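Page 37, top half.
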Amino acid sequence: MSGLFFDQCLVARRISKDKTLTENSKSRDQAESAFGKTQTQFLARSRTISEIDAVAIARDAKTARLRELRLEKEAAEAPAGDTSKKAGKR
């Protein structure tokens, strides 16, 4: 009889262990899925911020270039003695 009881205990322990492993596996899968979503969102935000920064840098460079061209044009068009117009106001 003790042999049968021992076998039943082993079977019960295996089932319990398998159930725990399955539950741990499900929890791990859920955690990895949540982490993957978070990581994907973070990378998407980083990529978006990089693109926005690149656009801002390009815009600032273009604005500076156009300002220089405008100031050169205004200086060339202004009479030599006229200093009433201040080019830096804009």
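Page 37, bottom half:
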Amino acid sequence: MRKASSARNQLIGMAGVYYVAAELCRRGYIALPTSRNLRAFDLIVMDQETGRSVGVEVKTREPRKGEKVQFKVIQATGESILYGDALEKRIKSCYVFVCLPPEEQPTFYIVPRDDVIRLVKESVEYYFGTRKHPRKTREQILKSRYPVGPYLELLEKYKDKWELLFARGTGKEESVGE
């Protein structure tokens, strides 16, 4: 059962990348998917008018009815996220979060790099503020590794904000050409 679920998740992830690429092309950008095992980003996007390019990370979720949707950005200890520099080192680009409900059109949330870092920290703080563990102390939980990322409800203000793709704080923007 796990293999089927894993394969399904990979297909959903790939669909999200191609939905984002298609939307960017529709808007006049050049969008090139990278190899699926490239860690840095999923798409290389170029603005034909300015010659600027940016790497984009895509995270896709297919929500189940009634589920509190969380997009997984990284796996790290709570301690390294809240008090260290794990996020700054590992989050290198703008993210596009894709909500892909069954048999509906996708919804896109375009979030600059610096905002992704802030949202992940807020999600970790929310997690610690709302959950109680019967057998572990807060310090033990902080040292545990787990996947973290923003909850869908925190992303609403980024819905369809494609102009944020090349905004400051999106990662390492480069000029291509000339």
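Margin note: DSSP finds five helices and eight strands in the chain.
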